[in-house]
Specification:
With 346 residues, the protein is mainly alpha-helical. The protein has 18 helices and 4 strands.
């Protein structure tokens, strides 16, 4: 393809994204068939670790920490050394924990107001776990949810030796004042911090389970294989959380998602005509498989990580042709073979 034709195509794509979006007619979409998972009861224990941590006696910190460790033997060390990043010397731990305890009290207070009860998310996660038991019966689910308050720039969701840990500091709402600071904005730009909403807790937890079951192995793979791997995860996520909004599962805004469906054929044409499907150069692939405010090559109204959308549509087509295939078999399916079999033509 000539350079002129390449940039002409980019201009054409930008016009598509900048144009008015036509709302999708949801009624025309195939209705989801949601299996009955009542035969797979799940109950997880919720530990509000942040409450125990921020209400401990700081005048007798060593004794308080020893007690906290005794009550949470599987999580306390993960929290102090892996999440807080304290050095493993006793004096260093005491100073670090004391400083952190004092400086993050206002984050704790805000989280307690927002999450006075965690019942809603407990029930959502338990229902997701029921679907995991239904589709992946051999996977050992954690039986404990641990809420905590970690560094603002740190993880908000992690599998630990104590259970599935959820950092409430990462779900205080996109307009939370601490998220507006220059320091935080440099780490998490607005296209990321807009997703620091409570609605993302359950989806992020289930994504964590999928990554634990099937660790991502896309490094060095061609773009088409990376897109299909992302598409497989979205397809499975959709099955495990059938009631969750597609915008939350993809991380796209509603306009971005509608734009993807409206321009599905044009997006595919862009990949094909620019010989990107079998590209392996990371710098050329990155805009299509990494999160971002948009995909620059496709215009400012497009979403970042648009490759997951295309991969999702390819997987949907393949599953339509193979309805008897289990989700386990789908996740184990070679993406190259899947692509060759599906003959995707949007």
């Amino acid at each position: 393809m000539t350079k002129f034709r390449y940039f002409a195509l980019i201009r054409a794509m930008k016009k598509l994204w900048l144009g008015s979006l036509i709302l999708l007619f949801i009624a025309c979409k195939p209705k989801k068939i949601i299996p009955d998972v009542s035969a797979f009861p799940v109950h997880v224990k919720v530990i509000r670790f942040e409450r125990a941590f921020f209400t401990m006696d700081t005048l007798h910190l060593y004794t308080a920490m020893d007690s906290l460790n005794a009550d949470n033997p599987g999580f306390f060390k993960d929290f102090v050394f892996n999440i807080l990043g304290a050095l493993p010397q006793p004096d260093s731990v005491l100073k670090y924990v004391a400083m952190y305890h004092q400086s993050y009290e206002y984050i704790y207070d805000s989280a307690q107001k927002k999450y006075a009860s965690f019942d809603k998310w407990q029930h959502e996660i338990e229902r997701g776990f029921q679907f995991i038991k239904y589709y992946f019966p051999d996977y050992k689910l954690p039986n404990t949810l641990i809420t905590f308050i970690g560094p603002l720039e740190g993880t908000a969701n992690a599998l630990t030796s104590g259970g599935l840990a959820i950092g409430l500091q990462g779900y205080l709402g996109k307009n939370f004042p601490a998220y507006q600071s220059q320091y935080f904005s440099e780490i998490y730009p607005s296209y990321q911090s807009r997703k620091f909403e409570p609605e993302y807790i359950t989806v992020n937890c289930i994504k964590n389970m999928l990554d634990d079951m099937y660790p991502p192995r896309t490094m060095g793979k061609p773009l088409i294989e990376q897109m299909i791997e992302s598409g497989k995860r979205l397809y499975v996520l959709d099955a495990i959380l059938p009631e969750a909004a597609d915008t939350i599962k993809t991380g796209y805004t509603l306009n971005q998602l509608e734009g993807c469906y409206k321009n599905e054929k044009s997006i595919w044409t862009f990949f094909v005509e620019n010989n990107l499907l079998y590209e392996t150069e990371p710098t050329l692939i990155a805009p299509f498989v990494n999160d971002g405010p948009n995909t620059p090559e496709l215009g400012k109204d497009s979403p970042g990580n648009i490759g997951q959308f295309t991969g999702w549509q390819i997987v949907k087509k393949w599953m339509e042709k193979n309805p008897a295939i289990s989700l386990k078999a789908l996740m184990e399916k070679n993406p190259k073979s899947l692509f060759e079999e599906v003959k995707y033509k949007p």
